[in-house]
Amino acid sequence: MNLVETHAHLDFDAFDGDRADVLDRARAAGVSAFVNVAIDLEQAAEATLALAEAHADVYAAVGIHPHGAGAWAGRVDQAVARLERLAAHPRVVALGEMGLDFYREYAPPEAQYEVFDAQLALAARMGLPVVIHCRAAYEQVLPRLEALPAERVLLHCFSGEEHAAACAERGYYIGVGGVLTYPGSEGLRRVVAAYPRDRVVLETDCPFLAPQPRRGRRNEPAYLVWVAEALGRVWGVTAEEAAAVTSRNAARFFGWEGSDGL
Prior knowledge:
CATH topology: TIM Barrel
Distance between the termini: 13 Å
Radius of gyration: 17 Å
CATH class: Alpha Beta
Largest sheet: 8 strands, parallel
């Protein structure tokens, strides 16, 4: 099985005791590439890029999560200048995760808008894909994405069932993970069944949102196998076929097609 982990937080302290083993277990399970995603600039500079430099199969996405937007209120130009320097690193394949979160709202909406809009403008200028965090904010996020090419947009941990048709029509990619395996996720499974198959990628969002067999415990990339199995059931194909399709999609999105990235 050839799997691509499109969204992990492998430099979080949840993995400090066994990070090398976690990577080895994932490789043994068939994971051929990892996109390790930063949530703030300090993490990106100190840990995310270092991990990508240390492993040929680990890539980086760098950005400012909406929860941390308040720290940059009123000085977003400084944030963008620093982010642009980080994004120029050869191991960076996307900007993110970025977006809006009005479910937790750990940062004021005004700060979230300011930081998100600035990152989208940077992505357009640099021609980089974006990894979007959107929670209870699809009506605010989707209009902002219209300025970017649709093939450059990945809606991570997709939860916008009522907006799925519009996202599919625009051609956005969606990331699906452990939530797809939960008994109560029938709505998400219906969305994924109808969504264009060439716009679906797999993720874990580890250490969060472990699949049903490990629900409530630490998640890790090896568990992507369970997500592929669940997706196969939704699509009526084998887990191997679901893995192959989503891995090709990931290669296209992150720009690995025809290269040595996978």
